Amino acid sequence: MTELYDLHCHSTASDGALSPTELVQRAHQHGVTSLALTDHDTTAGLTEAQLCAATTGVKLITGIELSTNWQDKCFHVVGLGIEPTYAPLAEATNNLQSTRLERAEKIALKLEKKRIPGALEAVKKAAGDGMITRTHFADFLVSQNHVSTQQEAFDRYLAKGKSAYVATSWAELELAISWITGAGGVAVLAHPLRYKLTANWMKRLLTAFKDAGGQGIEVITGRINADEVKLAADYAARFELAGSMGSDFHSAINPWVELGRLAPLPKHIKPVWELLD
Ligand code: AMP
Ligand code: MN
Ligand code: MN
Ligand code: MN
Question: Ligand 1 centroid vs 135 CA: distance in angstroms?
Answer without folding.
Answer: 6
